[in-house]
Design a protein that fits this description.
The protein is mainly β. It has 2 helices and 4 strands, in the order E-E-E-E-H-H. It has a 4-stranded antiparallel sheet.
Length: 100
Amino acid sequence: MKQKDLRVAIVRQNYQFLEELRGGELVEIKSGFLTVGEKYFRFIHQMYDDETGKMVATCDSVAVQASLESGKSVPMTAALQEKAKRYLVTSNVPVDSEVG
């Protein structure tokens, strides 16, 4: 990306905190893509308490690939889109259930 003067810009990010962590707990984060478009992708991170297996937080984001020169979004290559599509999940199903 650096050679092509591109960057990734997060244009939307929503957090949902479901349970309180007190500090020192071991957590596991699982991620996947919800949507892969020509110029953007939407992805989710799900945080789980490693001891209980309970989901404690989620982060739902939309990102674009943008030109460093113009600051505008640019289309992603077909190869990058296809690679991301291998990790598609649905938002209402824990990421682990879909990616295997």
